[in-house]
Amino acid sequence: MRAFEEVYLKLLNKVTYFAYQYLNDITRSKCVAHDVFLTLWENRSAIDPQGNLQSYILTITRNKCINILRHSQVESRHHSNESRGVQVFNLEALSDISSEVLLRNEVISQLGRVLKMMPEKTKEAFVMSRFNRKSYEEIAKIHGVTVKNVEYRIMQALKILRREFADYLPAILGLFVASLYSICRIVL
Q1: Predicted local distance difference test score (pLDDT) of residue 143
Q2: What pTM did the predictor assign?
Q3: Burial call 61-100: b when 16+ CB within 10 Å, e when fewer
Q4: How many other C-beta atoms can be found within 10 angstroms of the C-beta atom of residue 40?
Q5: Amino acid 137: pLDDT
Q6: Are 23 and 15 in contact (CB under 8 A)?
Q7: Could you say which residues of the chain have pLDDT below 50?
Q8: What whole-number distance in Å separates Cα of residue 96 and Cα of residue 83?
Q9: pLDDT score, position 169
Q10: So where are the chain's domains?
Q11: Fold of the 118-188 domain
């Protein structure tokens, strides 16, 4: 109960703001936020303690906003084309961008967990190579090992990453293909 209260107090404003970005109605956004935490409480036994709780909460918020916007679309069929266009835009933006942001946050979180589980020397070599853009020769000099040893460490790091990110590959490829499709539509 105490943990739930802490999460509620910590994330209530963030969830309300997130909902407001798409609903443009503070009252509805507050209702969505409270409904999100009610859903979280009702499903607390199914929550993965190792998972990213904030991403889970924002996903619930996103889905509730989508439902509200879809319902509003049905109601607005009798309203002007202008207001309907704004709602369609908000629905598309919420469906596309938020899922990308949530996936990116989840991938970054997973990367942090995977890096923590790597052997220290493997992690250092990988970070220096991929994030600090150091060559294998530079890394070898810093660590006082051979270039072959650095290559082996990088290979081990990539092997671990491939294994740990296997479940994320379809989603990442889907976002990549969607981005290419958007670019092609603009260019052509």
Answers
A1: 93
A2: 0.43
A3: bbebbbebbeebeeebeeeeeeeeeebeebbeebeeebbe
A4: 19
A5: 94
A6: no
A7: 180-181, 183-184, 186-188
A8: 20
A9: 65
A10: 1-116, 118-188
A11: Arc Repressor Mutant, subunit A (1.10.10)
Long-range contacts of residues 137-143, Cβ cutoff 8 Å, at least 24 apart: none
- Cα 58 → chain centroid: 9
Amino acid at 9: L
CA distances to 72, 91, 93, 137, 139 from 67, in Å: 9, 9, 14, 54, 51
Please tell me the distance from the alpha carbon of residue 24 to that of residue 60, in angstroms, as a whole number: 18
Q: Tell me which residue of 108, 138, 113 sits closest to 123, measured CA to CA.
A: 113
- DSSP string across the chain: -HHHHHHHHHHHHHHHHHHHHHH--HHHHHHHHHHHHHHHHHTGGG--TTS-HHHHHHHHHHHHHHHHHHHHHHHGGGS-HHHHHHHHHHHHHHHHHHHHHHHHHHHHHHHHHHHHHS-HHHHHHHHHHHTS---HHHHHHHHTS-HHHHHHHHHHHHHHHHHHTGGGHHHHHHHHHHHHHHHHHHH-
Per-residue pLDDT at 184: 47
